[in-house]
Design the sequence.
């Protein structure tokens, strides 16, 4: 907390406005949070609502909360405050539970009507008292049963509301242990809801959720093999000598692999980086009956005797993602330190000596926070594998055109629609490199764009002979009096060089012409990661208008001078794409 | 513990919590005499002193503290 007074924001490229409202004291959290965000290069402005005034703040249109115009609203409901109301209850416990749930969800819904900010709702730590002992669970009226049920219902209600995310305070409290978590003196005197030493964990938890909304997500886990995925050294011990089994002494590794497979199913790519002969490294994947991970679960497989930092660079190039979205897991401290030193952006957690503790050690770091999950996530490994396959076939064609034609590509373009909003919002969050302005639109703001008649927000989906690439591009064009303004343009890097951007620009020019615009304006806002699109507009014949001090540039295209680029794909432009206005 | 030692350890904690390495307090010093001493840093101070001297204050003890002198005698009473 001391650090908050001497924070240096000079390295912060980004500002974020977080409102904190709760029925407990929030001052300590409010002073911890800016420290955590400054470490991520974000200058955090915090608004603290008055103590215990959640509803007042939310219902009053002129409250400090709305005047602050927050980017994110964190709501803290604590069990101590709930307990006081519980003691005063006039109705049955079941009715009390419903009332409390309604209070919470009503707050979310009112916020949703008045503000586009996502809401981060806390769960409640379970109380220490068990009036009925173990029988508490069987009595729906007990405080213990009510808090358990309320947490479940908060989660259920949040599932149907895309703007609500969960700050699982109960998970932290149970991890710390309730006898350490609570310091009721602090509650009685200052309305602080847990022992001071655990507040940084709560602050970190809120920060993790906020950062995931802002696009900080892990996309790939890079794995060592010997003594990480199995016990022993495959090159020395051979296929029958390594430790790996569903039961007994190889079980730690079996469990660890099972955990990694869940991570992969959840949409995170797995890569291998091993110092080994390639044939040896592959052998367990192909021949060992107890291997949980299969060769096809690994998107990039590197096994050689070169240094691991160079191999990780290669993996990064193959996947086209940032170093800061990669986690490197290796049992060997030398390799970990080497990677930390040479590639400081890669996340390199310490692994305990005991392999049975691998899963716990990694889980404690909460590396895989996300603010969305869609069907596309579970297909990601397959998509990336197709792409790598593509690059291998690419070289055997005489010309790029010939190659592109052979792919039999189909592009679908349409206005944002409800069923695609989760994936659209996700692309806004994830896309860093091919992103002209990096506006992090949330699900809520995407929904607003969807119905805005002054706006033409479109997505692009791509499929070809090798498979379905899903939704890979977004452009937002805004009607302005004299010109069409391209406020957002982003694409998934895995479809670069396919003519998608050329197709979309042709489409935008057609749209502008259909709406009697003569000019299109484009904008580029530099970030640490999007240098690759610095001259994006120049390639289409846009003329540079201005360059600001921060490096942001504006571009203008006179559409009469535009020559459509030839593209090699079939187009499916859905009916609503160019609405019959004007 | 020697009173001298106790007082110097307390001062170290005060300086640490209030972020002022030159801070000087007397028995008669109260929260209103120290700029950084507000309700928030007060909790930090109490918890930091508890950790430093491996003691626990009760709510009643914390509530009846008036100045640094009260704090000194309370800690003296609680440390062996």
Sequence:
């Amino acid at each position: 907390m001391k650090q908050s007074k001497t924070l240096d924001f000079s390295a912060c490229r980004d500002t974020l406005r977080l409102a904190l409202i709760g029925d407990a004291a929030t001052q300590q959290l409010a002073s911890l949070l800016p420290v955590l965000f400054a470490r991520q290069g974000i200058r955090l402005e915090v608004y603290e609502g008055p103590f215990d005034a959640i509803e007042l703040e939310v219902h009053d249109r002129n409250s400090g909360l709305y005047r602050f115009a927050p980017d994110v609203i964190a709501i803290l409901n604590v069990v101590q405050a709930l307990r006081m109301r519980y003691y005063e209850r006039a109705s049955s416990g079941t009715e009390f539970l419903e009332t409390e749930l309604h209070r919470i969800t009503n707050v979310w819904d009112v916020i949703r009507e008045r503000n586009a900010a996502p809401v981060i709702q806390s769960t409640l730590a379970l109380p220490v008292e068990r009036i009925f002992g173990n029988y508490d669970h069987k009595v729906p009226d007990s405080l213990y049963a009510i808090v358990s049920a309320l947490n479940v219902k908060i989660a259920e209600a949040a599932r149907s509301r895309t703007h609500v995310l969960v700050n699982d305070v109960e998970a932290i409290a149970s991890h710390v242990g309730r006898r350490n978590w609570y310091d009721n003196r602090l509650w009685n005197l200052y309305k602080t809801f847990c022992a001071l030493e655990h507040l940084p964990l709560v602050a970190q938890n809120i920060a993790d959720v906020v950062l995931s909304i802002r696009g900080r997500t892990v996309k790939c886990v890079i794995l060592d093999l010997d003594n990480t995925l199995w016990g022993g050294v495959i090159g020395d011990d051979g296929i029958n000598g390594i430790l790996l089994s569903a039961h007994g002494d190889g079980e730690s590794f079996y469990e660890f692999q099972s955990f990694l497979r869940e991570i992969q199913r959840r949409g995170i790519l797995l890569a291998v980086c091993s110092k080994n002969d390639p044939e040896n490294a592959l052998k367990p994947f192909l021949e060992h009956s107890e291997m949980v991970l299969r060769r096809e679960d690994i998107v990039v497989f590197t096994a050689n005797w070169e240094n691991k930092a160079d191999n990780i660079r290669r993996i990064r190039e193959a996947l086209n993602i940032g170093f800061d979205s990669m986690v490197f897991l290796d049992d060997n401290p030398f390799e970990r330190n080497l990677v930390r030193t040479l590639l400081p952006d890669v996340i390199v957690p310490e692994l305990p000596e005991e392999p049975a503790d691998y899963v716990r050690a990694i889980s404690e770091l909460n590396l895989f926070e996300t603010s969305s999950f869609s069907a596309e996530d579970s297909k990601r490994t397959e998509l990336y594998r197709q792409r790598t396959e593509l690059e291998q076939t690419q070289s055997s064609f005489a010309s790029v055109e010939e190659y592109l034609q052979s792919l039999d590509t189909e592009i679908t373009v349409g206005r944002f629609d409800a069923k695609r909003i989760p994936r659209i919002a996700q692309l806004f969050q994830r896309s860093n490199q091919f992103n002209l302005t990096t506006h992090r639109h949330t699900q809520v703001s995407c929904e607003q764009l969807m119905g805005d008649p002054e706006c033409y927000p479109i997505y692009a989906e791509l499929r070809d002979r090798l498979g379905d690439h899903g939704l890979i591009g977004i452009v937002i064009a805004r009607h302005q009096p004299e010109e069409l303004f391209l406020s957002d343009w982003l694409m998934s890097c895995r479809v670069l060089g396919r003519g998608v951007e050329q197709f979309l620009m042709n489409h935008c020019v057609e749209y502008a012409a259909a709406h009697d615009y003569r000019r299109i304006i484009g904008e580029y806002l530099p970030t640490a990661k999007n240098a690759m699109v610095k001259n994006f507009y120049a390639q289409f014949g846009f003329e540079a208008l201005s360059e600001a001090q921060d490096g942001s540039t504006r571009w203008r295209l006179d559409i009469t001078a535009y020559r459509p680029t030839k593209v090699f794909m079939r187009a499916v432009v859905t009916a609503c794409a160019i609405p019959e206005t004007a | 513990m020697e009173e001298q030692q106790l007082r110097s350890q307390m001062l170290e904690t005060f300086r640490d919590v209030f972020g002022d390495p030159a801070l000087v307090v007397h028995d008669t010093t109260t929260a209103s005499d120290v700029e950084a001493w507000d309700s928030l840093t007060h909790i930090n101070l109490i918890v930091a002193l508890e950790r430093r001297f491996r003691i626990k204050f009760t709510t009643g003890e914390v509530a009846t503290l008036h100045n640094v002198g009260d704090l000194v005698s309370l800690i003296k009473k609680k440390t062996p």
The mean pLDDT of chain B is 90. Chain B has one domain: 3-78.
